[in-house]
Amino acid sequence: SGTDRVIGGVGRLHPGKQFDHLLEACAPLVRDGCTLLLVGEGPSRSALEARADELGVAGRVVFAGEQPAQP
Description:
alpha/beta, 2 helices, single chain, 32% helix
């Protein structure tokens, strides 16, 4: 179709935010060509990066880190 499909999540990467569930739910879509973009920083980042690697999707998951607020 000529367009890239991106799924995004924004927030503090903290266990209570359950980004691990988002990562696992999106893994089949990411394997099919989507990109998962996670914007935020927090104590779960390294565990999420490791889980993305375990799921075989690390190359299509972007951890953008903390971004400045936009008006």
